[in-house]
Amino acid sequence: MNKYELCVVLSAKLDDEERAAAIEKIKGFITRYNGTVVEPIEEWGKKRLAYEIQHMKEAYYYFIPFTGDANTPNELEDQIRIMEPVIRYLVVKPEEETAKTKKHEPAAEAAAE
């Protein structure tokens, strides 16, 4: 199972119950497509958008870590794309810190100087 991170931006027009229902629906999609939600889900709250989207200047941000097979992100994106309360989303595979990565960091810093 691979690790993934999902950032979801929900409409500011939603009340608490509607936001909770949208997050539960997303969690359901993750489990439906052979994934597992890794708790805790981070609610970043209502934030100002960098630019206006769908006539909104603010939105609610959520960060959902999960594990799944290679097809899980694609299937999840297909479902999230058509959800009305979602105005933006992004699924990424986080970088793993390995000994190889740590070994190259000092060399990169020395080269920058």
From TrEMBL:
Biological processes annotated in GO: translation
Gene3D superfamilies: 3.30.70.60
Keyword annotations of the record: Ribonucleoprotein, Ribosomal protein, RNA-binding, rRNA-binding
SUPFAM superfamilies in alphabetical order: Ribosomal protein S6 (SSF54995)
GO cellular component: cytoplasm; ribonucleoprotein complex; ribosome
Domain of life of the organism encoding this protein: Bacteria
CDD domains recorded: bS6
InterPro entries registered for this protein in UniProt: Ribosomal_bS6, Ribosomal_bS6_sf, Ribosomal_S6_plastid/chlpt, Transl_elong_EF1B/ribsomal_bS6
Example GO molecular function: structural constituent of ribosome
Family assignment from sequence similarity: Belongs to the bacterial ribosomal protein bS6 family.
Function noted in UniProt: Binds together with bS18 to 16S ribosomal RNA.
This protein's name: Small ribosomal subunit protein bS6
Organism this protein belongs to: Oribacterium sinus
